[in-house]
Amino acid sequence: MAKLPYSQKTKDLINRMCRYVERKDFELNKKKAEECLLKTYDLFGLKRPTKLIWCIDIFDEKFEVSARSAWSAGSARSAGSAWSAGSARSAGSAWSAWSARSARSARSARSAWSAGFAGSAGSAGSARSAGWTALDEEFYYFVFTYEYCENPNKEHSPNENDRKYLEYSELLLQALEYGLGYRVEWEDTLYLVPTPLVLIDERNRFHSTEKPAIRWKNGHEFYYIHGVNVDEKIVKYPEKLTKKDWINQTNLEVRRIIQDRMPNFVEKIGAKSINYAKGYELFEIDVNPDPEKIAHYLKMKDTSTDRIYYLRVPPNINNAPDALAWSFNLSVEEYKPIQES
Amino acid sequence: MTGYFTARQFYGLLKKLKNELYKTQLSQINNLLCYRCQNLYTSREYNGICINSYYFKTIMKKPYMMRQGDLLLIEIDQLPQGLKKRGGNVILFGESTGNAHRLNGGDIYEDGELLYLQIVQPIGEVYHEEHRKIDLPAGNYQVRRQRQYTSEEAIPVVD
Predict the structure, then answer these.
(1) Which of A22, A103, A250, B140 has its CA 20 to 30 Å from the CA of residue A160?
(2) pLDDT tens digits for range A154-211
(3) Whose CA is closest to A89, among A105, A107, A77?
(4) Contact predicate B53/B36, CB 8 Å
(5) Does the beta carbon of A291 lie under 8 angstroms from any beta carbon of chain B?
(6) Which sequence spans correspond to the domains of chain B?
(7) What pLDDT was estimated at residue A212?
(8) Complex ipTM value
(9) Chain A residues whose beta carbon lies within 8 Å of the beta carbon of residue B130
């Protein structure tokens, strides 16, 4: 058997975390989740907040306002909150002795869960507002420290802080298992948000061709196709997509998703090939009622992923190499990359 | 891209370095310039010996240019004046995917929309979740974003 870059116990921990990457459905256990979170205060001898308020999602006004205030007051993670845990961990602990081995294990752990976690779900719709914290935000370090304590370096054995940090992270992981996703503390009140329902593809990218890939129960929804954030229409009603949707979409990735999802894309677009050179093809497309009437599009195949992209170029460009050079504001003679990926 | 090698070292390197980057660089060598007598030899003529000296300067086709998706990196002699150093390793962030072109082994400089890279390690790398990484030898680079046409104006490519 191939030697693991980290111990079996660490691997088990990573597997446990990975079980919550995709969440098709879950039952939120508010009581137990709250209890776990409050215990983290006891762990550091801090006073428990007196009030607990559950919000629907991270866009909930109560949650956003308190997150913003906590952030501007600088209290989000600093003194006074249980999350000074982070600094307890770093002070004079095994962290100063990060070995290459544990760095490696943390990296591979990271790729094992990558996108699907609450931390990244929270950035949905570019709505990441400073101030709140996703429970799994620091799980990267959790794995790191866990592996370190399992296999300590001889000169720097783990200390009390490291063990406390593990206990703290374990409580957060349990709270996540009970369905808690995000929290912020402000004025003696703890604002809590459950984890969203998350659907992913085989490469851990947000993905669903039927439903929102990220959805808070009774809250916001976000649609993704293989990690690309798109509109509801593209996912749910691809048959309603039109040539106009494709032309007006300026985001290259989203436009690519439209061409993949639109039935009979080639016929609907009605592109006429006018030049082909070295894997690049230039097309003419009728864009009436656009005042320019016709548009020229360069078809490019990405060499890393084999994906097909179409890039609009000025209508006076009539061959593919010119179009490609234009897209980088160079002449054909100047555009000579020695590597394309 | 320039470098100084003795003829012996040069042949040694030819044999030894098999990695992709080096192969690409060699194919880009136009001429060899004798470091002492300034005689020029094309790489075909070059027989390993200059009667005056064993020191050669390799002259690469200029500029050194590499592309990763919608980014083109062009080698430049020096960075323009008045640039601001940017923190972090993100060169360009993809709005719809959350993926990014990132830099390892160098610094990112900016002047408004214009971006430059300075590679301080012998070889830096630009990596992205969905593209193969590209290696960049030490030096200065201008970052060019791909653009697209709209009936109003040319706008940068976003993904």
Answers:
(1) A103
(2) 666 777 777 888 898 899 999 989 999 888 888 888 899 998 888 888 877 889 999 9
(3) A77
(4) yes
(5) yes
(6) 2-60, 65-156
(7) 92
(8) 0.75
(9) 304-305
